[in-house]
Amino acid sequence: MSKITALNARGNGAIESIADYKDQLKSSMLLSLQDLRPNLITSVVLVVVKVGDVMMTKGTDYMLQLRVADPTTGVNNTMPLSIFRRTASSMPDIRSPGDIMYLEAVKTNQVEQDCHLYNSFHTSWQVHNYSVSVEDTSPIIQYLRQWWQGTSMCTLRKSPAKVAAPPASDHVNDGTFTNNDMDISEDHARRIENGNGASAGVLNSNGAISNPIADNTHPLAVAASAVSAAPRNTNHTMAVTPVAPQAQVNYTSPIVSTTSRFNSQYRRLISEMEPGRHGDLVVEVLHVEPPAPDNNFFGDKMQRCVVTDYTESPLFSDSSRMPVDLAIRGQRLAWCTIHQVDRINKMPQLQKYGKYWLRGAKCVYAGNGNVGFAVQIHPKYMRTILVIQIEDGDAALEPLNARRQEVLQAPVQAALPEPLPDRIIDNAPEEQVPYHEP
Predict the structure, then answer these.
(1) Domain of 114: which CATH number?
(2) Which intervals hold domain Telomeric single stranded DNA binding POT1/Cdc13 (predicted)?
């Protein structure tokens, strides 16, 4: 019997507490939202708290954003759920908050300190609409309905998104993904515009899922104030590498002409960046690798390149060890990884010696104690352009070109090899032996 069939079957044992609810989930091979970790492909059952509008992405597919919860997280600590479909009519039949969804083969991803849910090619679902009785369903579905009816959010239901969903024959709406339903060019763009490392668009107070819920999560007695005041447990987040001390930098932020389109209050020199900080960068690409599978995003591709703005920082790798053709002294080069390169809106083709604007780049550890940069899209911002090629002559390139000329004109002192102990080097002029005819 499949999980979907099992959830449709009427159960005999009633669920009386959170512990019983978790036991039922475990026996059904399901995870609660509180137990989710990044980079999983799992099955969950949840309650829709907020319903967004269906939006087009690049005109090729559609996205529906929801806020979901369950008794382990509470309605004040919802989790984002993004559903992508090839057509709007193939979206789940979500009619209002309070609808119960079962998702099989859904994937999780870490965005800052929040865990997000996304569908995949193999995701299937059921929807139990709030307006239809769940008397003949499993104890899990019945418990979620009772829990939702006991929350204060039940009276604050938002109008559902206008989705042209096909009519369902009953209250269960099944959906199964095929490769044709999911377009690989989905455009969920990242917009990070905070130089102090904060992420725009995702509110931790509304997206965290880690609040442990105690006795006040009973389906008939949920106190929203008690839920919001519960202490936070951040064990669900990914491990964060300790931030290295900031390097002493003598450079100042470049003054950009008002005629340049790349004016930004978040513009930074790469030497001013430290791990965990975001900024808008103007860089030159000195080495480009072909796109490769992205281990952080299932089914997507990433592209690595070596970038510089010719400022120097002790956090960067030694330039002599980087795969570049130019002889650059000091520590001025860094690896940059562009995630989900096929999905970024208007992503240009990276070219060697091309100049680019990297919006919202994050300074991250790249291994061996050195740092690099990462550019990653955010699912809440659909059309933000993150990488732009800067044409020659733009005022934004004047500071970079000046530093480039200064660095490349300075001689690079290469260490001469020391002679071996048993080798004698004689710098005297070679003796001219006269030519004798026989």
Answers:
(1) 2.40.50.140
(2) 30-149
Domain that holds residue 229: 3-188+202-236
What's the Rg (C-alpha) of the chain?
28
Query: For residues 417 and 84, which has the higher predicted lDDT (pLDDT)?
Result: 84
Residue 185 Ramachandran class (φ > 0 left, ψ -120 to 50 alpha, else beta): alpha
Nearest in space to 270 (alpha carbons), one of 372, 385, 397, 393: 372
Q: Is the pLDDT of residue 283 over 50?
A: yes
Place of tokens 């032996």: 433
**For the chain, what's the residue count?**
438
What is the average pLDDT across 220-232? Answer: 33
Task: Supply the pLDDT for residue 227.
Answer: 31
- Please provide the average confidence, as pLDDT, over all residues in the chain: 71
Claim to verify: residue 232 and residue 274 sit in the same structural domain: no
Quote the strand ranges of 61-134, DSSP E.
61-69, 79-85, 100-111, 114-118, 124-128
Q: Please state, as a whole number, how many other Cβ atoms lie within 10 Å of the Cβ of residue 302.
A: 21
For the record, the structure tokens of 303 come out as: 């592209």
Residue with tokens 């291994």: 367
Residue 224 — φ and ψ, nearest 5°? -65, -35
Distances (CA, A) of 256 to 288, 355, 384, 389, 390: 27, 15, 22, 17, 14
C-alpha torsion sign, points 248, 338, 203, 76? negative
Q: What's the CA gap between 66 and 229, in Å, rounded?
A: 24
Which pLDDT score is estimated for 16? 83
For residue 310, the model assigns a pLDDT of 92
Residue 257 lies in a domain: no
Which tokens is 151 given?
């929350």
pLDDT over 50 (residue 256): no
Residue 256 maps to a domain: no
Same-domain status, 26 and 103: yes
**Position 435 in a domain:** no
- Side chain identity at 437, as an amino acid letter? E
Distance in angstroms (rounded) separating the CA atoms of residues 294 and 307: 20
Number of independent structural domains in the chain: 2
Identify which has the larger pLDDT, 125 or 13: 125
Question: Is residue 168 included in any domain, yes or no?
Answer: yes
Rounded-to-integer distance, Cα 336 and Cα 370, Å: 12
